[in-house]
Amino acid sequence: MNKSQQVKFESLYRKHVSALKRQGKAESTIDVYARAVRRVAEYWDCCPDKLTVEQLEAHFDALVQSHSWSTVKVDRSGLQFFYEHVLKRPWTWVNMVKPPQVRALPDILSLGEIERLINGTRELRYQTFMLVAFSMGLRLGEALSLQVGDIDSSRMKVHVRRGKGSKDRLVTLPQMTLLALRRYWRTHRHEQLIFPHGRSSEERHDANSPMDRGGVQKALKMIAKECGIRKRVTPHTLRHCYGALLVEAGVNLRVIQHEMGHERPNTTALYTQLTHSTFEESSKLINGMLAPLNLHWGA
């Protein structure tokens, strides 16, 4: 886009973020709604205030082909907010056909692979982050937002604030994780944040925000590649591993649901499909079922 369009876009974009904050939207919502506006502007290389319905439809046609259905829906909601609250114009609903739903199971790392991942990390901040996310089953935003006051070492609990659905919960704090948190915090000694933004200890000590989400995601992907792990690894993979390993250890599903902050029990039950013990048990049952068969094979 040309210079005048760029200036106009930046002004509208600031208004968009400001309107989202005024309405008390969660940080994660602000992030994805703002990204929706940036994405459509980049797609057409122009300020999105003058886009036609046909251009919006073309944008979403391309988005359906390249991104998940959840991303498409969020982008549509983000643009609707932009039109109604920033441009003060009625939003013309863009109809889309939902593609067939693919229920793919997430990749799960073994304890050995998690050990390789953490030990293969050269930076203490990423090493600590991975242990924290894995050992307490935290979402990316929940781990990055942890503050010093959230750590209750006397009860060995961590207060997770404003998790998914803006709900708080208390999760178990393992001893190893407490020691790792203390070790990392001593490198920057920020008054509030556990994972402050910044490259040096000095920058982290004076930071006003946590580490960048995108930076953590890229770093984890690179670390997994360097460790020779061919599975798809994201920060959320660590959370899935936590849930699956708790099921394998025989922890009650209701307890796991509370620890992970799941709204519905069937979300937690997903992890029963991902554990070695589940597969081992089903294998025994299937082989036992077939054992009585006395089959005669032809030549």
Indicate the topology.
Elements: H1 3-22, H2 27-44, H3 53-66, H4 69-85, H5 111-119, H6 124-136, H7 140-144, E1 151-152, E2 157-160, E3 169-172, H8 175-185, H9 201-205, H10 213-226, H11 235-248, H12 253-260, H13 265-269, H14 276-290
Antiparallel strand pairs: 1-2, 2-3
Helix pairs in contact: 1-2, 2-4, 6-8, 6-11
First and last CA, distance: 73 Å
Strand content: under 5%
Overall pLDDT: 85
Strands, total number? 3
Unreliable parts: none
Query: What is the H/E order?
Result: HHHHHHHEEEHHHHHHH
> Helix/strand/pairing class, anyone?
mainly alpha
From the spread of the alpha carbons, the general shape counts as globular
Q: Helix proportion of residues, in percent?
A: 55-70%
What Rg do the Cα atoms give? 23 Å
Total number of helical segments?
A: 14
Seen as an oligomer or otherwise, the chain set is single chain
* Strand order of the biggest β-sheet: 1-2-3
Q: Main sheet?
A: 3 strands, antiparallel
